[in-house]
């Protein structure tokens, strides 16, 4: 049991902390009438969409085809209401930058955003289906599609990215990053929702993969664990502030394979279609189509592989 002296010290510490929060303000205190989107709700939406897009894979009840339409309709309507509530918080939030700069709320109708999200969801589902097949076809250790959906971290991360990217395209703030950081925490794969990724994308093993905001990835690309598609350096304006919204991350054209531990940097760096980037390569310059880039003992060399 705490002594009188300990209680007094504790109350003094509590008072000091309270005053500190009141005085300090940013970045530790977010005030205002409108609450921010809640991570637990956003994560619940991702999991709910997972059950809808992969019916029968997740959840604790058997699912029969004759009841599928009613089951999915009910789930989707409930998810639409949850998503609208979180989008309303996100577009109403007043976000801040260091120094007191305020980012104005986004002028969006949450209900309209939800309708547009659901209207475009079928095309995203087609992309997700292609990713699942690409994972199965790209890994000889895969025994069936069920194993790929239930157990492959790359499939989970790309699934979440697809949803987050759609919301990002629709101009929704905050929520897309919450989604992809949830997947990052679950899988070790960090994909910014702003990245542009084509069809039949497969990340094998996955741990440590980083794909930056302005990366562009073509169709049928395959990455292995530890690959970074990052920025060379961050350009700054005349005030020394980071310049945002510029192309900072590389482009991978169709049918590129990047092996484990490779680092590809820079917004002007283009890996030509059909190229293979070997493990642990550090690449900051473009390579032509059908190149094979490997590390030799003392230098980086690339060769053009015949078509």
Explain what the structure shows.
The chain has 307 residues and is an alpha/beta fold. The protein folds into two domains: 38-98 and 106-189, serine acetyltransferase, domain 1 (Orthogonal Bundle), CATH 1.10.3130.10; 208-307, UDP N-Acetylglucosamine Acyltransferase, domain 1, CATH 2.160.10.10. 41% of the residues lie in helices and 14% in strands. It contains seven helices and 17 strands. The chain has helices at 4-24, 39-53, 68-92, 110-138, 145-151, 153-169, 175-187, and strands spanning 95-96, 102-103, 190-191, 196-197, 202-203, 210-211, 216-217, 222-223, 228-230, 251-252, 257-258, 263-265, 270-271, 276-277, 282-283, 291-295, 300-304. It has a six-stranded mixed β-sheet with strand order 5-8-11-14-16-17. Strands 3-6-9-12-15 form a five-stranded parallel β-sheet. A hairpin with a 5-residue loop joins strand 1 (95-96) and strand 2 (102-103). Helix 2 crosses helix 7 (175-187) and helix 3 packs across helix 4 (110-138). The longest helix is centred in the middle third of the chain and has 29 residues, at 110-138. The termini are far apart. The mean pLDDT is 91.
